[in-house]
Design a protein that fits this description.
The protein is α/β, with parallel strands linked by helices. It contains 11 helices and 12 strands. It starts with 7 loop residues before the first helix and ends with a helix.
């Protein structure tokens, strides 16, 4: 085969349906399974792949007894194909939203803390006001959420920003925050007006594991002031479990100050009078560059901006 540059001939012969077939073959791992998903015969699937390969002048799939795998050429086309179909999907949603402003799917990602603190009340409000809106929410740390971006399973991510994002992403800082130490009201420390950080080291702690983004950030907060981080009695990323353990009055935890400000009234949790000087961090909305958001998603982003601005001004 001879590699074909983009020209009028390739533009005329390259079919959207054939690219869709290629994506299905790679996702299912075989021509037969792809045919079943697409409701096409296996010869028709093979013909579509052959047409693509002939048009582009390269081999897109390696075939073996174990199935099919994309070649480097196939991977390159698949990457752009995923983006292409995602943009088309967004276009259809935009049309639906323009026709009816209460219709649209919003796909967002964030840490469990962000989801319970920011997303939960906003999604409840929007879905109540606009019952034909739908939401897909994916939880994970920032590294995992970047992979969700690559697969086009999320449109925006809200996360603490430990470093500038990769060049293909844009980040809009919503606010800057610090960490605070919290305890249940039944904890004896909750009645103190002054506490030294060193007094907290031997207390039972619950926090995110040190190998997570947030866990490593809180660990470094102790090291930055020359102290060994306390041993975690309970290491978990579960926001629900953190809250339940803190409410018992036995455990201490470290959370963003913003989390305390926007929590629904929770009389069982109190911020302790302890200040960590090196915990200021940025929280940002992360999006893919050169990729338009649907009208529904843009509406969600605008509401996020308004909520975070109003709460942040309380500080």
């Amino acid at each position: 085969m001879t590699f074909a540059l983009w020209d009028d001939r390739v533009r005329r012969r390259l079919k959207l349906r054939d690219v869709d077939v290629l994506l299905a073959v790679v996702q299912t791992g075989s021509m037969g399974k792809a045919g079943a998903v697409l409701r096409m015969s296996q010869p028709a699937v093979s013909k579509a792949i052959a047409s693509l390969e002939q048009t582009l002048g390269v081999q897109l799939l390696d075939r073996s007894r174990r199935g099919v795998e994309p070649t480097p050429y196939g991977l390159a086309l698949i990457k752009r194909g995923v983006a292409m179909f995602d943009e088309l999907r967004q276009g259809v949603h935009d049309i639906a939203f323009l026709t009816d402003p209460t219709v649209g799917e919003i796909r967002v990602g964030g840490t469990e803390g962000m989801i319970s603190t920011l997303f939960s009340p906003l999604i409840h409000q929007l879905s109540t006001q606009n019952p034909r809106m739908s939401f897909r929410v994916i939880s994970g740390d920032l590294r995992a959420l970047y992979r969700e971006f690559e697969a086009r399973r999320v449109d925006i991510v809200v996360s603490r920003l430990p470093s500038p994002p990769p060049e293909e992403y844009s980040a809009e800082v919503l606010y800057e925050d610090t960490l605070v130490v919290v305890a249940g009201l039944r904890n004896p420390l909750a009645r103190r007006r002054k506490i030294e950080i060193a007094e907290l080291l031997d207390e039972p702690w619950t926090n995110s594991p040190p190998d997570t983004n947030f866990g490593s950030f809180t660990t470094e907060a102790f090291r930055a002031i020359g102290l060994t981080p306390p041993r975690l009695t309970v290491a978990t990323t579960s926001h629900t479990l953190h809250n339940e353990l803190l409410a018992t009055g036995r455990y201490l935890g470290m959370v963003p100050r913003f989390w305390v400000l926007v929590q629904r009234p929770n009389p069982s949790i109190k911020v302790l009078p302890v200040a960590f000087p090196h915990t200021r961090h940025k929280v940002a909305i992360i999006t893919l560059k050169n990729r338009s958001l649907s009208s529904a998603t843009q509406f969600f982003v605008d509401r996020l901006r308004a909520i975070t601005k109003a709460v942040h001004e309380q500080k």
